[in-house]
Amino acid sequence: MHHFAYRDGVLFCEEVSLAAIADAVGTPAYVYSTATLRRHFQVFRDAMAPLDPLIAFAVKANANIAVLHVLAQDGAGADTVSAGEIKRALAAGVPPEKIIFAGVGKTRAELGFAVDVGVGQINVESPGELVELIACAQTRGRKAPVALRVNPAIGAGGHDKIATGGGDTKFGISLADAPALYQAACQNPWLVPRGLAVHIGSQIKDLAPLRTAFQRVRALAETLRADGWPVRHLDLGGGLGAPYFDEPDPPSPSAYAALVKDVFAGFDAAFAFEPGRLIAANAGVLLTRVIRRQPRPERDILVLDAAMNDLVRPAMYEAYHDLKPLQEKDAAVETIDLVGPVCETGDTFAKGRTMPRLEPGEAAAFMTAGAYGAVMASTYNARPLVPEVLVSGDRFAIVRDRLSIEEQMGRERLPPWANAEPTPP
Question: What is the CA 67 to chain-centroid distance, rounded?
């Protein structure tokens, strides 16, 4: 469920007309619904309530501090993959003990920062990283809480580029190597072993791969316990899909929770989950406006003011985003291509999309854009960085300004020698 709907022919976010936001803020612009963020978090939390887990929102899905603050107020932790994301989570009010630090390429500086601020768990993904974490902890005289992220050789997700659990991906420690590394972590005086972590992909629409992965994690945990090593925490990652309008709905949080309870029945541990897309995707839209119509023999092309630098998912993942006019239309539909103004053929949102006819100047909203939208935006083609807006009831506020070209150039400078006299030949 989300809080974007037509009222008297006008598309609203909660109690605010999206047309009013488009007029006030300009387009393109992201708009997020506070009520939707809270509802999605509550649904997931309620489904998992018998496990009393840590629900750590995946900051990589949407890193806006205002969004993170909304979720932190409802008790969410943060799943982070960089020092920058840790800083964002802390700024949003997430307690450090509710922060999980994951990622395959943590630098020593980032590991040291995580130890300094006291994050609750550092998911180690290689033997070399474990060595560096020990050194960081020892240097600071402060023990580091560690979990091993294991690779169960089970990949899943909506696209090859977001399947992370396959045996040939860069993520995690193989099941065969995990026991020896976990033993080493347990025996080191500068580490506090917490348990195991796993994450096999994103936009997962079938629970079967998750069941297999979780069964392998449980078997490993039981082996470690049988050898005398404590496994007190299980971080089961995220990845459950969100509905993108053009496909059947993914499994519900309640079905996912039932799977977890079944696989881990009788296994006493503290659980953590890292949902991201599930919480944020349907909580956001990208507002855009038609620049012009470009006739073609086969079908017309609509050139929008939003581009791949604002929403890269269609270009990168062939992802589908429904486009809804801000003013509801009763006219007949047409089949068109939707493109942006960036100088790339890949700047295409859809080919052969059947939808209501839009004319130059009319505004529309790309739906299900709250996850992996603004967070992946860039200033390619020297375009202003897209702003973000948060709606709460009948109020809205800009929570990230549009970064102008002048502001972008203000971060650049000529080298000292640029204006020197030219050297004679």
Answer: 12
In the residue annotation, 343 being an active-site residue is answered as yes
End position of a domain, from candidates 273, 296, 315: 273
Q: Are residues 253 and 324 in the same domain?
A: no
Extract the tokens encoding 359.
Answer: 């004319």
- Rg of the chain over Cα atoms, rounded to whole angstroms, equals 24
**Full DSSP string of 6-41:** EETTEEEETTEEHHHHHHHH-SSEEEEEHHHHHHHH
Of these residues, 13, 136, 186, 343, which one is catalytic? 343
Strand pairing category for 29-33 and 270-273: unpaired
What is the pTM for the complete model shown? 0.93
Mean pLDDT, the chain, rounded, equals: 92
pLDDT number for residue 247: 59
Q: Which domain holds residue 347?
A: 4-31+281-409
Dump strand ranges (E) for 168-262.
173-174, 191-197, 233-235
Domain match, 236 and 113 both: yes
Residues 260 and 344 in one domain: no
Shared domain for 131 and 208, answered yes or no, is: yes
List Cα–Cα distances, 284 to 307, 375, 392, in angstroms: 17, 12, 13
* pLDDT > 90 fraction of the chain, expressed in percent and rounded: 83
SS3 string, 44-96, reads HHHHCHHHCCEEEEEHHHCCCHHHHHHHHHCCCEEEECCHHHHHHHHHCCCCH
- What Cα–Cα distance (Å) separates residue 388 from each residue in 43, 50, 208? 25, 36, 36
The CA-CA-CA angle for residues 254, 198, 368, to 5°, reads: 55
* Furthest-apart CA atoms within the chain: distance in Å: 82
Distance CA 352, CA 290 (A): 17
Structural domains of the chain, count: 2
CA distance 249 to 204: 11
pLDDT of residue 403: 94
Is residue 225, in this structure, part of any structural domain at all?
Answer: yes
The candidate with the shortest Cα–Cα distance to 42, out of 243, 283, 355, is 283
Torsion angles phi and psi, residue 329, rounded to 5 = -120, 140
Residues 6+ apart with CB under 8 A from 255: 207
Integer CA distances (angstroms), 78 to 293, 338, 400, in order = 43, 35, 20
Q: Are residues 148 and 257 in the same domain?
A: yes
Same domain, 229 and 329: no
Enumerate residues 6+ apart whose C-beta is below 8 A from 244: 281, 319, 320, 321, 322, 368
pLDDT digits (tens, 9 = 90+) for 390-409: 999 999 999 999 999 999 99
Calculate the CA 127 to chain-centre distance.
Answer: 27
